[in-house]
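Below is how a single chain appears once it has passed through the pipeline. First comes the sequence as given, then the structure the pipeline wrote out for it. We keep one example in the README because the format questions we get most often are answered faster by looking than by reading.
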Amino acid sequence: LSDRLRINGSLARRAIKDLMARGSIRMISAHASQQIYTRATNT
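Resulting structure:
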């Protein structure tokens, strides 16, 4: 997210939290400092 939109890491983390709260994305895996997300589907 930070590379694609050219924003810093703290802003990217805040955007990810907002997208999760809206239900737009969901977390697949979290380990230490790396998290993996995907788009939320209606299944």
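The mean pLDDT is 90.

See the next section for the split statistics.
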